[in-house]
Protein 1
Amino acid sequence: MSEVSNQSTGYCPDPDSWPAVAAALDRAGVARPGGFTHALVFRRCARCLQDNVVREGVFVCVFCDAGLPHAWNVDPGHS
């Protein structure tokens, strides 16, 4: 059984990135599951600029308690 996760604290990819991951694995001839086996949701806090893992659908910064955006925002253009 192969497993694939989007757990990358450097890039913090959104679960919506699965099609690109799947295509890359297919091109490389690597067996893969039908989706991320352990998908994480990352968001950057606009107040303190810390990257967060959203747990149980609670979009609140664990560092400063500010609300987190529902849309993915962890890229250099959003810092």
Protein 2
Amino acid sequence: MPRKSRFKRRPNNSGTVVKLSGKRRNPYCARVMSDERDIITGKKKQVCIGTFATREEALNALSIYSLKKSNAITNEEARNLAPDLYDRIQEKTQKRVPTFYEIYQILDDEEFSKLSKSARNGYSSWIKRFENIHNRQINTITLADLQFIFDNDGAANGTQAHMKVLCSKIFEYAVIHQYISRDDDYTSYIRIAEFKQSTKHYPFSVDEIRKLQSVDTSEVHLLLIYIYTGLRAGELLYINRDNIHIDEPCNDDGVDRVISYIITGSKTEAGKNRIVPIHNDIKRYVIDELLKKEERLIDCTYASLNNTVLSAVNRFLKTSHTMHDTRVTFASLCQLYKVDVYARKKILGHKLKDITFDIYTKASKNRLWTEVNKIKL
């Protein structure tokens, strides 16, 4: 009569437990099939996920491994179920899983390096805020770990929103490359700091703009150009004269007009190489300050722009405006004079959420110029 085994046979592909020979502290070895195949036989190789003091411990380790591999439970649930077993399994099977910072370095090389310098610098700044988990393998990081960083970071809503985007990219990479399951990507549940309306930036008032229009200096001219175009400070610095078009015939909307515009843009894909119409009220300033052959005041650094243009204007108005206030002012004027929201976003270089407008609608120079000239001061 065949001898009956004392142990029930495990289902196929669920792993096996074998007792190792000799005297050992942990004689029971839990083995599972890996995805790696023998180069000669083509058969899948068996790998050890740990050795244990008792057969029961080894069987429990196989059960936890199987549940994790099939995504029946998350990493966090597995850790809560049997912390010691989970850690030992992780140590044996997950040595090749990259750390949080290693994935960032991959993304920095493959994705962030293609962005503008300022955008890439942003990511290199935000990653520093996750220093506590830099060396943690991605599959060991929990929602609690992430939330603790956000709760104790102290950054404002805007910065934390960027931090969350970075986290999402890192965890998305881990999911795509199967270092974690979709269920282990907790980034959408991260709570960030509440939004608080900034008091740092405020628009120039209509009275302030009219006062500036009464002054005939290069500093005031440049500031008015910024106010009427909504350009970012850096988008006008060192601008190429070839990108400034004055009194150019145009009929791209079917109507013959003579318009003026600038081609510029930076920072985002939506903002690059965009058409920025020149309002009639500042056309003379653009010609005088941006097209003159001799050295231009605008050919300077951002710091110099603040120390010359902005300081002179603030002294005259007795205010404390920032350069970004000019962009805020343009947006406010567009709202006040009912400039079409599509034209406004195109001029400012903001991405439109409406896919029809954002992808399929080509910006008409005539339309942008017509809309911006609705502003009457």
Protein 3
Amino acid sequence: MQRIQSTVFGLLMLSVITFGIACVDLRDAGNSNAIQPDSQAILLQRDQQNRKRNSQEQQNQQASEIQKVSTGFEVAPLSTDPAINDWLDPHYVVIDQSANLRNKLFVFFPGSFGNPSRQKLITQFAAKQGYHAINLNYPNSWTVDRLCRKNSAPDCYAKVRQEIIEGKDYSPLVNISPANSIENRMLKLLQYLNQQYPQQGWSQYFNKDMIKWDLVVVSGHSQGGGHAAMLGKQHRVARVIMLAAPADYSVVSSVVSGQIASWLAAPGQTPPERYYGFAHIKDPGYARIQKAWELLGMANYGSAVNVDGQQPPYNYSHRLITALIPSRQGKYHGSVATDGTTPRQSDGTPVFQKVWQYLIRVS
């Protein structure tokens, strides 16, 4: 009897234990998807860290883009148009994010054999004045003067320049396709920049396949300055700035006996009061440049003013000259615009910075 009672008692205890274990298992099974408070805190902390890290990465990327644009960056012509197949050195583009943007475009054309990387200072300075600034690479593997100086045709210079600008067959002396022309390169660069940086306002300077020339300041050095002047004849632009340019004369033995390039005195879309020039008095082409400025109508807007030691507005003249020694001996022609030859202050600031400001500042 006692053995039976012990057996029954054992069975009852085993049932109680089994039931308790089952209850625990059922409770745990019912909460199998639940996360303990400690685990929730850990995951929340990790999520906050990830979001903070992603936010910081976005801020760093934005800061990098701002810095990239403010200091200038290069764009390969092929990136803008696969049909461009020559003169492939990169364009140079600058926007100064700290400046009060003027909603005008500054376009600079380097001289013969030049490329944008050698004339960044003036492009950067234009950006500091609030311009969207572009230094454009284009077909320039010659001097227009060398092509035409012994050509008696008075329209030789005009036809060569028109073909470089438009990419149409105007002259047998050059062979420029439409894709390689200045106008196509400029338009495709603007379209590319608008696509890559839509928030920066590049779209205001073109309408479909047309450049809005009235918002453009065209400028250039040497050959590029002549193209700027020609563009002013073809389109009504905001301003034309010619640095050490143009000098379009077919010279036989002297300037006096040479043939004047016909396009200089021809009527144009941009009025003469929007033409400005700057040259060194020891530039080999100085006499021809001065004559070109007169033919462009600039003599009606003040006598030539030597800017050395002077402050703007230089008697409001449109014809500015200098006699300062270049930073590289004898490089007078490039001294008014080229990084390696323009004279500098002791802190590295270009001496002609105020001159550039006067030339490019359009209301």
Protein 4
Amino acid sequence: MPSLDAARRRLRLSDAHISVLGLLVEEERLPAELSSALAELREAGLIGDDDKIVADLYPLVSTLMAPRVIVRVEVTGPLGVSSNGAVISDEFIFTHEAWPGSTESEYVPTEPDTLVWSLARMVDLHRDFAEEADGTEVITSTMGLFDQVVARMEGGAFEGPEDVAEATGAPLRLAEILAQLNCMWRITVVWKGVAQTENPGGLSVTALSVWDCGIEGYWLRELPAEPVSDGAVQASSELKVRRTSAKELWGLITDLLPDGSELSATQSQTTP
């Protein structure tokens, strides 16, 4: 069920609830498949009998309907993929986090100075207990061999990294770090900036892909390079991961976000 914590301005909403709110604001007709989501919003007191949105919802709805920057955070772990992120408008910033297996996400207002902290928390960026390891270590392979290693490790049979590497032909070191894999995460940031020659639509995209390998530390995937377009990665595509640290990743997350000059350029393009 959707809900509102007015004291902390937190909201729990599903994608269906968000769709209903957007259609109501735009005064468009709701399809039949959204009727249950509409009823839930009414029951929760988030919209009135006249289908007017309560005032507490307007900051979030206005941000979702006119975003300037969208941040998507995908975390792939034992319970599947969770989709989290942030939405930034001229006036507000909201972060949203999903719980694996739940259709609803928690939306929370965030201040600019705490945005990087919020994104870091979404991926559980934590102290690296293997910081003394070689920060220049690099592993190269192919995406096909990576898929084989992961599939074999998820197959259920108990095999050590040596056995997996021998069976798949993958580098032993790749099998060793994947044996300690906690999760993989990717952060993608999209905003409308100065049009790029390689991107006629004018959308700027930055992204970062990381493996959290527990006692083996953090590994930054440098190839295939992010952002990766659909269909661009094949089994023969080169895989390159580099040992990194939580400190470096904090800086890389910060660098993903557009700076003030880029946002100013965005605003000047959209201002009549």
